[in-house]
Amino acid sequence: MDGAGTFIIKRSLADGSFLQAKVFVQNGPGTYVRLFPQGDRTLMDVYLFGELFQTRVALPVSFDRLLTAPFSSIMEWSASVVNWPLVLAPPPGPGDRRIEEIVHALMSRLHGLRDMDDGAMDGAGRMVYIATGAPAGKGGFNCSGFAKWVIDSLYAPLTGKTMDIAPLKSRNAARNNTWSTRFEEELDPYFGLDWSRGLARAIAQAQKGVAPSDAQIDVRDSDRLPYIRDVGYPVPKLEYLLYFLTRGSPGTFYVGSVNAPSALAVSEGTPTLRQHHHVIVLFPYFDLKGVFQVAVMERNVRTSLASLTRRYGNEYAHLVRIESTGSFAPPGIE
């Protein structure tokens, strides 16, 4: 029912009069226009991925006439108000193909990964514990170690080695404040934020030869959703955000740091202290059919935005950019 071009018309049970119509403009349930009769005109709301994009756009035709008109006429009548090239899915380009190829490469390797708390691969390719650097035998990955392994797949072909761990978990004083300092050792509340920025900074420096600032790697410049410093964006709105990011920067993927108010901090009367407790990797792209996809990779498995929302629907995710240019070769694990 939610395929592009499908009309759903709602009529009154009392007298059969038209109440509204819903027209899907992309494949999927969240992107559509809703049309309402308004005298001799029609009003239109435009939704993208469940979010209201534009509202009460007046069309200079009656609802009855609109129902027998092609959708191209609706676009023509509203062209001065609605940015239809942005609303409709674009044809996939080389950046989309590159992201899709990376997703396929990772999927072919996921079955061979092991899960381990505090596990990662160090700069020498050894499996270790993140906290101490001690050898972990065959080891495995937690969410942070897995995200590092993904970015190492771009980093190692450029540098000949995997990333060192110490710079990634280095605490960034710029995101700290005086009242949260006492929680650094007890809670390490910003670990996921520091780690994700460290990954983005390391690969950007390897790709371009210059270490970027936090402002250059963070996703802060969306004009669709307000950014909260060092917190990011609501998890349920990630699809909406990623759609616009992908339209502007195809071929880019993102490391996210999921965060929520710390339970300990709340009990001690500091509810604004947030715990960055989970690291995810997001791969947005348009597939060969022009359908917008977001592959979510976290802790050695592929999940989905729907799964993230079920688990973290009241939380936020801070995003950093990763350019996908260059060779992608996941490091081998013994």
Topology:
Layout lengths: L6 E5 L6 E7 L7 E7 L2 E8 L2 E9 L3 H5 L3 H7 L6 H4 L6 H14 L11 E3 L5 E3 L13 H17 L24 H4 L3 H18 L5 H4 L15 E2 L3 H11 L3 E10 L1 H5 L6 E13 L5 E7 L2 E3 L1 H8 L3 E8 L11
Antiparallel strand pairs: 1-2, 2-3, 3-4, 4-5, 6-7, 8-13, 9-10, 9-13, 10-11, 11-12
Helix pairs in contact: 5-7
| Strand percentage | 25-35%
The secondary-structure element order is: EEEEEHHHHEEHHHHEHEHEEEHE
Q: Please state the overall shape, judged from the principal axes of the Cα atoms.
A: elongated
Q: Main beta sheet: strand number and arrangement?
A: 6 strands, antiparallel
Count all strands and give the number.
Answer: 13
List unreliable stretches of 5+ residues.
none
- The helicity comes to 25-40%
Question: Radius of gyration, rounded?
Answer: 23 Å
- State the separation between the terminal residues, measured CA to CA: 47 Å
What's the overall average pLDDT, rounded?
92
State the secondary-structure class. Answer: alpha+beta
The count of helical stretches stands at 11
Integer count of domains: 2
Task: Please explain how this structure is put together.
- 29% of the residues lie in helices and 25% in strands.
- It is α+β, with helices and mostly antiparallel strands and 334 residues long.
- It folds into two domains: 7-87, no CATH class; 94-323, no CATH class.
- Strands 8-13-9-10-11-12 form a six-stranded antiparallel sheet, sandwiched between helices. A five-stranded antiparallel sheet has the order 1-2-3-4-5.
- A hairpin with a 7-residue loop joins strand 2 and strand 3.
- Helix 5 (143-159) packs parallel to helix 7 (191-208).
- The chain is elongated.
